[in-house]
Write a structure and sequence with these properties.
This protein is an alpha/beta fold. It is 35% helix and 29% strand. The chain contains seven helices and ten strands. The longest helix is centred in the C-terminal third of the chain and has 16 residues, at 176-191. It is globular and about 50 Å long.
């Protein structure tokens, strides 16, 4: 089953009278359970592609089906619902809430989906244990290392059992040891059948992914299948 299917996807930004094409007729299909790395130099369209896949932006033209639903022309309110229910995000800068502890940060997506406090707290605890933070449940972000904060972010991304997990440079702010720990968690999620799309400059992530897509000037210039 294709989780993602995009056809001739284009995104052009208008700055004054200048048209700046960021994506040019991109075609891409991602099957359920695949692990995809997206690479390319700055300005190649990586972030634009991730924003469109994450329903954070709308394409200028082309079509995007997520889980069989055409989300290309949905309004902002409907896109917000899609993001909350079907997409998990992991950011380079973690984007945790400083006043909340580990459990509370992981609970956030479930709160917005109307889960009961008891259900969300129990599930958040299970996810914290899954990413190796069972002993840090009451710690706030400033009490955690960068690697631990990224683990919280991954657990939060899993909270609503999303159709797809999108990660933007998830090891970009981490030392090599912490980066390896995050790589191992991503590998385990893939082994559990999660669908992952990771924008990265990290060759180790690309080597671990099933497919590596290389973008240049808003187009897919190369695709490498790393493993079956």
């Amino acid at each position: 089953m294709a989780v993602v299917n995009i056809e001739k996807l284009c995104k052009t930004y208008k700055i004054g009278s200048v048209q700046l094409p960021a994506l040019r007729e991109v075609d891409l299909e991602i099957e359920q359970g695949q692990y995809i790395a997206v690479m390319g130099p700055s300005g190649s369209g990586k972030s634009t592609l991730l924003n469109l896949l994450g329903c954070l932006d709308k394409p200028t033209s082309g079509q995007y089906w997520l889980g069989g639903e055409d989300v290309s022309r949905l309004d902002d309110d409907k896109l917000s619902l899609i993001r909350g229910k079907r997409i998990g995000f992991v950011f380079q800068s973690y984007n945790l809430i400083g006043q909340l502890n580990v459990i509370e940060n992981i609970e956030l997506p479930m709160f917005y989906q109307g889960f009961s406090e008891e259900t969300s707290a129990e599930h958040a605890r299970e996810l914290a244990i899954l990413v190796g933070l069972g002993g840090r449940l009451k710690h706030r972000p400033f009490e955690l290392s960068g690697g631990e904060q990224q683990r919280v972010a991954i657990a939060r991304a899993l909270a609503n059992d999303p159709l797809i997990i999108l990660a933007d440079e998830p090891t970009g702010n981490l030392d090599s040891e912490s980066g390896t720990e995050i790589l191992n968690i991503l590998d385990r999620l893939h082994q559990q059948g999660k669908t992952l799309v990771v924008v990265t400059h990290d060759e180790n992530i690309a080597a671990n992914a099933e497919r590596t897509i290389h973008l240049l000037d808003g187009q897919i210039k190369q695709e490498v299948h790393n493993r079956a």
